[in-house]
Design goal:
Structural class: mainly alpha
Distance between the termini: 39 Å
Low-confidence stretches: 4-22, 24-30
Radius of gyration: 19 Å
Number of domains: 1
Mean pLDDT: 83
Shape: elongated
Number of helices: 6
Largest sheet: none
Oligomer: single chain
Amino acid sequence: MRIVAALLGAGLLLTACERTPAEVPPSHYLSPVVTIPPSPLADPNLVRWMDGFCTAVHGYRDRARREADPTRPLPRTAAEAQQQLGADLGGMAARTGEVVGKLDALSAAPVPAAETARRAFVAKFSKARDRAAAAKTRLDRAKPGDQASPGPAAEALEQAQQDIEGTYDPVGAVTASPELMLAADNAPGCKS
């Protein structure tokens, strides 16, 4: 019963921000080329950097919505729970890893506040990625049908989701910097 409750909680967390399949863009792996409009007030380098920062973070949320399956039935056996949790942990590790990769690939931060924000987000997403990947490895090593393995896996998934709590608003991380806020106002990726 504990397994079902843990999976139900994890499923609710994953589907809380679902989008229906009709809303999924046909080319969800390709990002459109966006021309950043010039602003006499915003430094174009800051706008480009903030656009990349916001796009990386919003990409996690968008991908999580696309991958959510609200119609997935609850598992009836420990083996089914292992399979669903393995998929959930693998998806979490992949999504958070993608964000870390994109944040690491950003050009040098144009101002110290931007670098501070990037480091904080990389740390949170890395922690979630590592936690989910380690839990998936432990789950994958468990004997199929092992009654004890789904509980810790569900707890690790929930903790990984908590690790990235507060990262859904990348602009909120730079509110102390007026120049980054101005850049965010002009960056298309920050308008999600």
